[in-house]
């Protein structure tokens, strides 16, 4: 490509020869210069019009600003929705944790109101600043992780306490006849029928006929029969080779195979079998060997005293 430049004043003619690469470079340079000039003019006109309130420019500015505000509001709403969802999840976990705390405190014999008090906080205010979105999300993530850990720990504690409570419920520590002191204790004594020394394998609770007899612990009724010596008798299996026996009853209120609870009324005091008067004969057997029931009842009294403190 050849460009001819004519100067009429000096009567000169100058020819410029442009190759393909030079032509492309010139076109690109002119285009870049035009773009920079257009951008500068647009920037100058836009700012001047915005400052002086030109109608068209002001309308464009308002539209641009409104679009930016709308985008920012949409972004904020999306983030707020996400944060609200996280907050709802945290509230649900905190409620679950509070429920676990109440159950665990109940199993441990602690008043739930004593652990709901807000812990004291304080200190000197040195510096403060508003939390950023990233800092808030990080704090929520840490709280979420901590809540999960506390929930897992409380669940394990609840399970262990429940197991301990079940074991205690299966140990015969409840007095079978209320407000009655044993008449004849466990051990060797003079037999009332033969007048000779014999082992008394349980405790005798003298009481009026029809006095309620309560289960000393939870378990399963394995025997309910009329025995030649024990009279109307009940045997309750508490697991771990531990059995309690209730003898000389006048009336039996449970049958073999029944699942009973601690403190449940299972019979009434009577004078059946080998007996000289109305009373309950109460035995505790471990692997079939008679044990002193008073030791179990004393343990129950100690636990009750500790629970009231």
Written account of the structure:
- The chain has 309 residues and is α+β, with helices and mostly antiparallel strands.
- It folds into three domains: 51 residues; 71 residues, no CATH class; 115 residues, Glucose Permease (Domain IIA) (Distorted Sandwich).
- Strands 5, 6, 7, 8, 9, 10, 11, 12 and 13 form a nine-stranded antiparallel β-sheet that branches.
- A hairpin with a 4-residue loop joins strand 1 and strand 2.
- Helix 2 runs parallel beside helix 4.
- The radius of gyration is 47 Å and the shape is rod-shaped.
- The mean pLDDT is 78.
| Total discrete domains | 3
Rg, nearest Å: 47 Å
CATH superfamily of the largest domain: Glucose Permease (Domain IIA)
Question: How far apart lie the N and C ends?
Answer: 109 Å
Lay out the secondary structure:
Layout (H helix, E strand, L loop, with lengths): L1 E6 L4 E6 L2 H33 L2 H54 L3 H4 L17 H37 L17 E4 L6 E4 L2 E4 L5 E3 L4 E9 L3 E7 L4 E11 L6 E2 L4 E5 L9 E8 L2 E3 L1 H16 L1
Antiparallel strand pairs: 1-2, 3-4, 5-12, 6-11, 7-8, 7-10, 8-9, 9-11, 9-12, 12-13
List keywords for this structure.
309 residues; alpha+beta; 3 domains; nine-stranded antiparallel sheet; 13 strands
What does this entry show, briefly?
With 309 residues, the protein is of the alpha+beta class.
